[in-house]
Amino acid sequence: MDEQYDVIVLGTGLTECILSGLLSVEGKKVLHIDRNDYYGGSTASLHLNQLYTKFKNGATAPESFGKERDFNVDLIPKFAMASGEFVDILYHTDVTRYLEFRQIEGSFVYRDGKISKVPSSNAEALLSPLMSLAEKNRAKNFFEFIQNYDFENPATHQGLDLNVVPMSTIYEKFGLEAGTQDFIGHALALHLDDSYKTLPGRDTYRRICLYMNSMVRYGKSPYIYPVHGLGELPQGFARLSAIHGGTYMLSKPVDEIIYDVSGKFTGVKSGSEVAKANLVIGDASYFSTKVTKVGQVVRVICLLNHPIPETGDADSVQIVIPQNQIGRNHDIYIAAVSSAHSVASAGHYIAIVSSIVASGSGDAEAEVAAGVALLGPVLEKFVHVDDLYEPIADGSSDQVFISKSYDATSHFETVCADVKDIYKRITGADLKVEGKVKRIEDDE
């Protein structure tokens, strides 16, 4: 460890591992350290006894659940959009060779007191109870507008410049009902709240196109998920870094982060060892004085012995509960997977209910009660509330580049945005994910 590196990375969360892999591929000498004895940090997948140890004061999991290592329970639930930037990064880096993905079977939305499937075909759309026949015609006109819209061709704009016109005006133009707006904005565009309606429609347009393109890619739903859980993802990027010369050290405490007299990062001390580098990347837990708290997320991990009711016995689902349907200021997300994804023993399901915690909330768990109520009987649940942090500075002056905490969104697109932002601040160049990087076969 007592040597000079180009980059030191602290923490093995997904963001850190992606950046470690990308920079290693580009020939940077990378040292990657984590105080934990497992990969993934807050994006790890835990075995059942690890879960009980973390959240139940060291209790042992009941034998009725089966083998504890049959469970790989995500601490932070997210799915990959099949046509999203995260999948592009996976293919670009060839990390897909370490992973196997399965499709999530269904995408659902909560409306008017019941769960309804988000249509995955024209036939399903015609039969869907989400809208009346007249509203379906109005929605059809809206989606045709989205599909035909060309930013370079004003003839396709119908008088609506998406760079300027707010989304509320676009909804009004097509006469869409409030419930349909909830469906489009929260189940398709996957906005966390309704603030998007006051903003220009371009971002919502992009989000709807991403959802639709991802749905077309595989059918059923737009989401895919790694077999054995999300913990496989940081491990895959860690392996990429390692075969390109990166050095990994788990269970390695970080006793001090060293700066020169001007406040610029110079190295990391662990015990009597000091590693020096030109810059450091890390999660907020390593830089408490350089981050600011921007909110909280509550996540309730529930173990079930049945599929979620009203989902057609699907082995995996995402359910979005739009804020307006339950009188909140933020949506609730439910992500459910099962033994079909090798994350639970046979006959068991893992459902994780998540949402942003309202400011001043005295009972975070109560804020997602409407989501937990949709699951049916729960065998066991684990509740955790995580603070959300963002870096105070961009890292240019002190060469400290800190990742944002993982938000309540149900997919990896915000993670990708953070990766691209940090990458550009470090290298001065945009991250390009065109084609695959040159493969270096590992020793195995």
TrEMBL record:
Pfam families: GDI. Gene3D superfamilies: FAD/NAD(P)-binding domain (3.50.50.60), Guanine Nucleotide Dissociation Inhibitor, domain 1 (1.10.405.10), Guanine Nucleotide Dissociation Inhibitor, domain 2 (3.30.519.10). GO terms for biological process: protein transport; small GTPase-mediated signal transduction; vesicle-mediated transport. One of its GO terms (cellular component) is cytoplasm. GO terms for molecular function: Rab GDP-dissociation inhibitor activity. InterPro entries: FAD/NAD-bd_sf, GDP_dissociation_inhibitor, RabGDI. Belongs to the Rab GDI family. This is Rab GDP dissociation inhibitor. It comes from Physocladia obscura. The gene is GDI1_1.
